[in-house]
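Consider the tokenized backbone below.
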């Protein structure tokens, strides 16, 4: 699975999870706060990178929104403290 999200340059960024965390947690952590993301199959990413800057995706119905690394780590610390 891959995580895609619109970046500040008008393109699409792609995250490749390592498997250490569930894909949805990687997306919440590594996608900037408030930015929509989609979790897609590997095959949905074009293998031809010739026109990489022309890739497009519809983020109108996202799988979620990022919260950013700082907020994610604070959330994890809060969960740990609550134990």
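A designed sequence for it:
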């Amino acid at each position: 699975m891959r995580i895609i999200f619109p970046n500040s340059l008008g393109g699409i960024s792609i995250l490749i999870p390592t498997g250490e965390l569930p894909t949805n947690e990687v997306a919440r952590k590594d996608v900037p706060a408030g930015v929509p993301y989609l979790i897609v199959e590997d095959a949905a990413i074009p293998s031809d990178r010739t026109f990489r800057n022309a890739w497009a995706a519809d983020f109108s119905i996202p799988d979620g929104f990022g919260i950013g690394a700082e907020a994610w780590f604070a959330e994890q610390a809060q969960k740990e403290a609550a134990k």
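DSSP finds two helices and four strands in the chain.
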